[in-house]
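Note to self: user wants both folds in one dump. Writing first protein now.
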Amino acid sequence: MSKPLSRRVFLSHTGAVAIGAAWTPPLPAQSTRPADRPFGAGERVGVGLIGCGRRGWQLLDLLLRQDDVDIPVVCDVDSERVALAAQRVEQAGRRKPEATVDFLKVLDRSDVHAVVVATPDHWHAVQHIYACAAGKDIYVESPVGHNVIEGAAMVQATRKYFRVVQVGMQHRSAAWFGDAVQQVRAGKLGKIAETRTWNFVKAKPVPPSDDGQPPASLDYDKWVGPASMRPYNRGRGHGLFYNWWEYGGGLLTRCNVHYQDLIHWAMRVNGPASVTAVGGNQGLGDFRETPDTMEAVFEYDTQLLPRPGRFMHVYSLRLSNGHAVWAPPVPAHNSSFDAASSMHTGALFHGEDATLLVDELGLAVFPTALRQDKPIDTRPTDNTGPPFDVLTMAHIQDFVNCVRTRGEPRAPIEAGHYAAAACHLANIAYRTGHRVYCKLAMQACFTDSTLQAVDTQATEMLRRAAYREPYGPPRV
């Protein structure tokens, strides 16, 4: 349920976040509508779509099912994609929206009250912060920020401008994920020593491709945006950007960020005490830069559960084989991905009294081996859980409702930042080969648990080394 966004909540959030990077001045607020006035009963919410790729198209279709939402403008740096998105709105019986390649034109419009940011990861922070300064509410796809410092800046901008922000972590709108959280928090599993999340898939290798000329429809300079300019290569472009460090963080930030948030939510933690990660591109040996195989081990301290203490979280990534063989068994397929790829993903909470499994299909509780109780499994036996868009629709409805009422959405910006930051830290540990100790509020990494010796190499990777003008960085 949505909560009012009080000044006390605002102050408690902003007190924990500081920005250490230099950022250029923000845009002035452009909206002519009073920023914090709730909508009237018959007033429609104007939503601008920024990013018309696969995920943007999915979100657009769901927005078109909302009777109280108008879509006056759509935006993408690919003119073909944005034209198709505008056509899709018109085909749904709505007024054809403006189509633009410049997201600033979306923010200039007084009939846009909120924006959906569904662009590649390296654009999220810039567009989010400019939208906050322009007085717009935001539905931003995960991960929050390309790096840790960007995520912190997004938090600060959200609270500075009193914006309603929903992070696209739609599992927070699924009742059974909430049930899993409540069981963990109530101590029903006993003391939890270990949690686990994973992404396993039998993926097709990304074939090597040569640098070349971008498609005529693509404004490649705007696509690269704040990242370093490199020659165009279709193997780094649409749909594959997250496999490259300049633009994303691989499957760890693309997929695991959702379940990392679940671990944080259930165990009542914000960030790990340390992270270690190993792996490589050794299963597929393909064109990607990020690993196709990885094991990351996080150490957390939780003091807010009935049985507080330290626990270990393990994340596993494997793209060359989709099978998970540990007990309890996971479903053969996951409904959020193509079933033919045999995607396995989920979370396990290993307590002294029971193990809880939760995934896109539901949850199951398995007593320990010393007990003979019958397992409690609420997942459907036919492996056909709720359609993925059902969860996202509920998440979008929550966002639109919060825009109307000025409430706080189910997946607030802080939750998205903390989940993404943990995944970024694991990537840093992998890339440096170091065990990384970190306290997010200090915006530094360390070589020891006492946080006395700064790990310079890891600390530098908390932020992007340089931003290309004029695309960033913005200032909070």
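First done. Writing the second protein, which came from a different request thread.
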Amino acid sequence: MLTLFFVEDLPIQIGQIYEFDNEDAQHAVRVLRMSAGEIFMLADGTGAWSQVKAFAVKKKSIEVEVMMSGFQEALPTTITVVQALPKSDRSKEAIELLTEAGVDRIVPWAAARSIGKGSDKFAVTAREASKQSRRLRIPEVTDVATTEQICEAIKLSDLALVFHESAAVKLSDCVSSHNVAHLLIIIGPEGGITQSELDAFTSAGAKVALMGRPILRSAHAGIAAVAAVSALLKVW
């Protein structure tokens, strides 16, 4: 698959000459050492893309010609993952994994037992992970949300799932329909979701599900949940 970079002013006209000159371009020149004749992808992060060919490589930029362009429609199911904040390094890992899993929206959650803090670098992490995983749509990373805000999001979703080791119902038994436009998945902190948080979520309409027997790290549970639910909903 072709290397992907993001630009704000995406060129889309066939034959158009474009000066690729942002930080991604500098990375392409200095680190990837791209040369004239190489073909790669440019995208705007919201679905639009162009395949381009380099014809003049400069010190900090590359002149390219647009060969073809298009637009990738969003999938019918929008996936939002609420991720309780783990330690800083694991927060970054969680953002990367959720991005690679294909989620549309990531909501950092200040749970009662969270030990991590929010960061304005989360959006950068999602952008970089999108390039790495060759996805054309960069997921939205919101500001840190409270439990009350998560409850409001639950009410607006078609299906909200919160994973907890005390659940008596398997995940596969919680998904009864494939017609889910707005899916919400809630992942708790390393110390676990408190009973009061769990009660608040279920009162708002969330289903409590069990994700197998092993207890996953908070940063890893999200990608496992997204994979399982995506298969059950036939998103994958």
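Dump finished. Worth passing along: The mean pLDDT is 91.
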